[in-house]
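Please annotate this fold before class:
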Amino acid sequence: MPELNDLVQRVLDGLVASGAEIGLQAAAYVDGELVVDTWAGVADEATGRRVDGETLFTSWSTTKGFVATCLHLLADHGLVEYDAPVARYWPEFAANGKGAVTVRHALTHRSGIPQMPECVTPEMMADWEAMCGAIAALQPLWAPGTRVAYHAWTFGWIVGEIVRRVDGRPLAQFAREELCAPLHITSFYLGIPESAEERIAPLREESAAAAASMAAETLARRVMPPSVTTAEVMNRPDLRRASIPGGGGIMNARAIARHYAMLACHGTLDGAQLLSADRVDLIRAMQTDAIDMVFGGRARRALGYHLGGSARRGADVAMGRRGGEFGHGGKGGSLGFADPERRLGFGLTKNLMKYDADPRRSAAYLVAERIRGYLDASPSGRRRFGLMTSLLKRR
């Protein structure tokens, strides 16, 4: 679809030319085929280095989608049960009233421990054992399972430590060997090797983004402490080399899109089946659309992912409005999602962290909407969508 690639390229070029973005990439797969592979702008403002297809971006919570998929790989092999206590796999986690926290609670931000340990520092975040020990010792802010609150950082260590305890390998190794290798994803890192340093685009934080994410409310500050939740911290060499699964993944748009292409194709890509089709249906089913205690609005959530649908119900509209789309965005505007009805896997990442009060003005929305519009308007897209709708109705 060269025409579609050109259309998306024009969107990216326009965003950079207008000053709305510094540097960004977008990629998309349809029916398992890479149909969009675009980039624009400057990767490093200090040197003038341009973005290319191999540029890597710290993509914040877009990392959570990869981490959730790692756990689902174990569940699909019968090694993890969603309604089992986390403490079955990680006994120390039961301390201070967390014995009833289930894996499902962890995946849906209902564990009751969205707050970071009070002693947290950037150096501590780079120490897996220290972070897991401190999180295991946390006391819930309310009874587990009773409220939804975005676990901005703690989600990653909770889910990642379950993976480590069950499988035995560190999460970064598991993700590399069990998720990325079978999909031939070569540009996703939970801790970069030295050789990847020169490919990274430093983050820049727009002041409005900082103000929005570091709101004055006590809970938001405890969940996303200003001392660690900044572009400056995540640009540090030691943090780039650490496995920080809630928001420290470093990747490019191709990696994001390819991960979600597998999920959009019901667990199989290029002949490699990572998840059963039934598992994919299960993990994208809505679990809650309750009010989120951190953000104050509703959020439609599946098992580790956000959902598309109506904005009035807390959906991520950049993913689409039909409701079956699922994925995860990241602080500042990166996004990855799967749209199984269109068999679309999407990835966008960038280096300017900004907050758009109207989500329809975000780069991710503008690019994804251009792709959806093209697919739905083209004869081949209409035929594909009609076929997929028919197949889905028969399942």
